[in-house]
Amino acid sequence: LDAVTQTVRLVRSKGIGVFFVTQRPSDLPEAVLAQLGNRVQHALRAYTPADADALRKTVRTYPITEDYDLEQALTHLGTGEAVVTVLSEQGAPTPVAWCRMPAPRSLMAPAPEQAVDAAITGSVLHAKYAQEVDRESAYERLSAKVHGTADESDQADQDPPGSNPRPEREPARRERTREPEAEPTIVEQIVASGAFKSFLRSAGSAIGRRMFGTARRRR
User: Fold this and answer.
1) Alpha carbon distance 70, 85 (integer Å)
2) pTM, whole model, 2 decimals?
3) From CA 191, how far away is CA 99, in angstroms rounded?
4) How far are the Cα atoms of 27, 56, 117, 180 from residue 110, in angstroms, in the given order?
5) Hey, which end of the chain has fewer CB within 10 Å, N or C?
6) CA distances from 53 to 56, 81, 167 (A)
7) d(Cα 18, Cα 5) in Å, to the nearest integer?
8) Rounded alpha-carbon distances, angstroms, from residue 29 to 6, 25, 181
9) Residue-wise pLDDT tens digits, 120-150
10) Residue 93 has what DSSP assignment?
């Protein structure tokens, strides 16, 4: 019940409708009953003292009305009858009404073609969508371009020997002139030598050991 109450409180301002179908209104927490908008209560029977107590509690959850004695009305409802209260356009509960609930009318079979045609022709969108339009698809456009390119290639292959061939477009390639490399200086030769690189590695390792305290202790 705590989960039901929490859910109702979370969704009450989100425009979500929740339907509760219970044997008795007392099956729901009072916090939920206080937020119900539409209520349809069928007959209740009071055969035991506990049932009579539940009936009185149910009556107190309805809007006050002078038209019916709800305690008597709820116990005398017949088949297909219910006590109903809903929210008005202003969001206020409407007076309690003793109503007869008609059975739903439906057909457990495929709809006849006449009914389907009548529903289609009676729609306001029938004038806009009644005429079928077969537009050219992207696949058809791409296929036409591919076939057009193939036809042009075939026509080029079939040109007579005396005709002027089409000039082939070749991208102009420009070779970059390489400038002669200058000879390395003495400093560059020393820096690039293996001995100098080995010296740098040894010096870097020694500096790192002294900075982080990893130098070997002399015995």
Assistant:
1) 12
2) 0.43
3) 103
4) 39, 47, 13, 89
5) C
6) 5, 22, 103
7) 12
8) 11, 9, 92
9) 899 988 888 888 888 888 888 888 888 877 6
10) B
